[in-house]
Amino acid sequence: MADNDEDLFRRAMSDVSPIKQTGTESISTKPEPRALLRRRDEATVLEESLQDNPERSDLESDDEMTFRRDNVSPVTLR
Predict the structure, then answer these.
(1) Rounded-to-integer distance, Cα 39 and Cα 46, Å
(2) SS3 state of residue 38
(3) How far is Cα 18 from Cα 11, in angstroms, rounded to an integer?
(4) Could you tell me the mean pLDDT of each successive run of 10 residues in the chain, 78 residues long?
(5) Closest by alpha carbon to 60, among 69, 52, 48, 70?
(6) Structural domain harbouring 29
(7) Rg for the chain (alpha carbons), in Å?
(8) Single pTM value for the model
(9) For the chain, how many structural domains are there in total?
């Protein structure tokens, strides 16, 4: 059965000729990397920091905000 497959392959490839090679490769230069998303994010943060944001007014009050993980005793924070 393997001989039959080999014969079929040889017959199918009988008209095929190798591709001519020129000896040179086309090498494209990679563009210089730029952190576009980072620059955009930094610009957005800067813009937001310069705006008066009424949604953040509750954070500027005199109320103290704390965070405690479940495994930390309230006594530890005193």
Answers:
(1) 11
(2) helix
(3) 16
(4) 84 90 79 83 87 61 74 80
(5) 52
(6) 2-76
(7) 34
(8) 0.28
(9) 1
